[in-house]
Amino acid sequence: MPDTLGSRMDALSERRPSAYRVLLLAKTGAVIGMVRISVQDDDEAIERAKAMVDGHAVELWDGLRFIELFRPVD
Questions:
Q1: End-to-end CA distance of the chain, in Å?
Q2: What are phi and psi of 67, to 5 degrees?
Q3: Could you read off the pLDDT of 17-74 as tens digits, one per residue?
Q4: Between residues 27 and 16, the one the model is more confident about
Q5: Domain for residue 35, yes or no?
């Protein structure tokens, strides 16, 4: 089957699997740990990341896409 522009565009537009990561941050902003999480979507990832805030801030990423920073509660 010949490679057509349409089939290449379809392949490019397919949603890649998410690669969610939670970065644990020291008070200085330095990364002190990283946890990969397996979830279905951003909403579920946000809930999981919020639950990881425990005296330190966390950042939530999906691959290279920054989603949100969660600061510790004082």
A1: 61
A2: -105, -55
A3: 689 999 999 999 999 999 999 999 999 999 999 999 999 999 999 999 999 999 998 7
A4: 27
A5: yes
- Residue 38 in any domain: the answer is yes
* 57 in Cβ contact with 69 (< 8 Å): yes
Note whether residue 3 is domain-resident: no
Q: By C-alpha distance, which of 19, 16, 44 is closest to 34?
A: 19
**Tokens matching residue 53:** 């805030």
Say which residue, 27 or 14, is predicted with more confidence. Answer: 27
Q: Which amino acid is at 40?
A: Q
Q: What is the chain's Cα-based Rg?
A: 17
Q: Distance (Å, rounded) from C-alpha 47 to C-alpha 33?
A: 18
Asked whether residue 6 is assigned to any structural domain, the reply reads no
Residue numbers of the domain that contains 35: 17-70
